[in-house]
Design brief:
Length: about 350
């Protein structure tokens, strides 16, 4: 059984599945009557489009039955909410139990289709026991077991977002009046409210769009987005993500005093050079007194920098109102930053240290 479990962990649809299993009921061993909500381990003896017959190695080799509705499914996380979700789940359970009774009686349910997913014979994995009618084979579910693991993994991603400021890649696969439906790292579906979509554009040019069906299909559908996991509900089987939160977390990772940042000159003003940062949607000021170790007259600043010019600089301690940069530490000789040619060479030498 230990060898089989190790093999299952290698083939499981979710990495780190063993950590998630710790949150599930312990695997039952020995020959005893199965109990609903137990976790059982078994091997497929026979399967067809209507379901599969499973030998439960964890329960002394007794046979269980899994209808096709409980086969593994890529859409592990449901988007249903509240009582609507509960009603749909009860409807699904009653429908599957009815089909299970038809199958036991040798009857073919007219809702069966020829293209149903079929688990291969000899396939071994864990199942959740959905029901254990007395005197009948237990009713098994692979998808419910998988959903529990996936939700646990999603919860781990949420903790990584909260504790380590980590963001993750998701792809928009659909939408509804309330927001976007995304697939997150291939694990399952997540929901993003429209209010959590980030502004489009950078700096002061960033704008909030009025999202309609047409604009979502034109600009977002099928696109990859960096998101943070903001909420996971095991009871409702929902995962909520946010692009706005992801950008805030990314900024926290990048905007650290001493980090080398890249940007472009947006404007030259009396106090110095306004720089549009590349890694984040923020503007920063390169003050005149932080440009060079040599004293820089104000007219010289106006003539030395041009809009669109590439800048590499150090971030000073972030302040509440404005980010401040410095390039004087990058000089080999005082005054290097006052020459566009020498400045470009120093920036090129420092680009390996750029963050973000």
């Amino acid at each position: 059984l230990t060898i089989i479990m190790n093999d299952f962990q290698e083939r499981a649809p979710c990495v780190h599945a063993s950590a998630a299993v710790q949150q599930l009921p312990k695997l039952q061993q020995g020959r005893h009557a199965p109990v609903a909500n137990d976790i059982a381990y078994g091997v497929v003896q026979f399967s067809n489009p209507q379901g599969a017959r499973i030998e439960l190695l964890s329960h002394g080799g007794i046979t269980g039955y899994m209808p096709r509705d409980y086969n593994p499914n890529a859409s592990f996380v449901r988007m249903d909410m509240g009582s609507q979700r509960e009603q749909q789940q009860q409807h699904r359970n009653s429908r599957v139990l009815s089909r299970w009774q038809h199958t036991q009686a040798g009857m073919r349910d007219p809702r069966d289709s020829e293209d149903a997913v079929v688990l291969p014979r000899g396939h071994s994995r864990a199942f959740k026991i959905v029901a254990a009618p007395p005197g009948r084979p237990p009713l098994l579910s692979a998808v419910d077991y998988d959903k529990a693991i996936i939700l646990k993994r999603m919860h781990q991603l949420m903790e990584m977002s909260q504790q380590d400021h980590q963001t993750f890649t998701a792809r928009v696969i659909g939408y509804n009046p309330g927001g976007l439906i995304l697939t997150l790292l291939g694990y399952g579906q997540a929901f993003m409210p429209l209010s959590c979509i980030a502004l489009r554009g950078k700096g002061r040019a960033a704008m909030k769009m009025q999202w309609t069906s047409e604009s979502i299909e034109r600009h977002l559908l099928g696109q990859a987005m960096e998101v943070a996991v903001t909420a996971v509900s095991f009871e409702k089987e929902t995962v909520v993500v946010s692009e706005r939160a992801a950008r805030e977390l990314h900024a926290k990772r990048v905007l650290v005093a001493g980090h080398m940042l890249e940007g472009t000159v947006k404007a030259v003003v009396r106090r110095g050079v306004v720089v549009q940062l590349t890694a984040v949607s923020h503007e920063a000021l390169l003050p005149s007194e932080r440009i060079s170790q040599q004293i820089v007259p104000e007219p010289h600043v106006q003539g030395s920098f041009t809009p669109g010019e590439r800048i590499v600089s150090l971030l000073l301690k972030p302040e509440e109102r404005q980010l401040r940069l410095s390039t004087l530490e990058l000089e080999q000789q005082p005054g290097d930053m006052l020459s566009s040619e020498l400045r470009a060479k120093r920036f090129q030498a420092m680009e390996r240290y750029v963050v973000g």
